[in-house]
Amino acid sequence: MGTALKVFSKFVPTNTDSLSVDCFIALGKGNNKEIFFNKVLILGAEPFLCVFVSWLIWVYIFRKRGQPVRNNKELKTKLIMTTVIIMYVLQPGVVKVMFQLFKYKK
What we know:
Layout: H1 2-9, H2 22-26, H3 32-65, H4 73-99
Helix pairs in contact: 3-4
């Protein structure tokens, strides 16, 4: 367990976009404002999607092991820890993009 903490303590959320969707959205037709707001919507939903997928993976792992899923303290701990780590890693990029909404340009 101590080794895992040492490994995770080295990770610092330095990337601004964990999921770059600019090129994907730009393939569709639309003006720049529409592309920007689509990017904001996708990046706003990204943490929730990542948490949902990670929860599905943990439930699958526990079922594969033959352990109960309901009222399992170990599963609950792993889900909470995974959610906190995902939010910690994705939060800086999401906040940066959300604050770009308030930039005023003429």
